[in-house]
Amino acid sequence: MKRTHRFELMLSDAEREIVAASAAATGLTMAGFARQAMMIDQPVSARVKAHVVDRAAIAALSAIGTNLNQIAKIGNSSKTLNQQHLHALTVMFRRLGAIVSRIENPQNPASTTRGEP
Q1: Percent of the chain with pLDDT over 70
Q2: 53 CB-contact burial (10 Å; exposed 0-12 / middle 13-18 / buried 19+)
Q3: Residue 85 in contact with residue 60, Cβ under 8 Å?
Q4: Which has the closest alpha carbon to 52: 110, 107, 115?
Q5: Three-state DSSP class for residue 11
Q6: What residue spans define the domains of the chain?
Q7: Which end of the chain is more exposed for a tag (fewer CB within 10 A), N or C?
Q8: Which helix (H) or strand (E) holds 31?
Q9: 114 alpha carbon, distance to own chain's centre
């Protein structure tokens, strides 16, 4: 949707900090958060919860996908995988488990998406 109308709002420093923190907590820009907050159909927290994403988990999944594609290409072209490839697959499998755990339990900071076992 193309937005063609501008809306300005004056805030105190304290109000701006509150809006900035709330926007960051929901994964929105300040403008996006303000836009959502002005819609009266339901509270902001109810609308944006489904849109909050774990950017680190998404980045880790992307990296794993890239590595998996590279290993699949090697396996498809050579029809074999060596010990190094199998170890990399094992590491990726463990990292996937950690990412799933992090997504299912976002309050648990012990879950990690980086590093090897």
Answers
A1: 77
A2: exposed
A3: no
A4: 107
A5: coil
A6: 13-51, 55-104
A7: N
A8: helix 30-38
A9: 14
Q: How far apart are CA 75 and CA 12, in angstroms?
A: 60
Do residues 34 and 9 lie in contact, with contact meaning Cβ atoms separated by under 8 Å?
yes
pLDDT tens, position by position, 61-73: 888 888 888 888 8
3-class DSSP state for residue 23?
helix
**pLDDT per residue as tens digits for the range 17-53:** 888 888 888 788 888 888 887 876 655 555 455 445 6
CA angle 63, 57, 91 (to 5 degrees): 50
- Cα separation, 94 vs 112, in Å, equals 10
81: left (phi over 0), alpha (psi -120 to 50) or beta: beta
- Secondary structure of 51-85 in HEC code, one letter for each residue: HCCCHHHHHHHHHHHHHHHHHHHHHHHHCCCCHHH
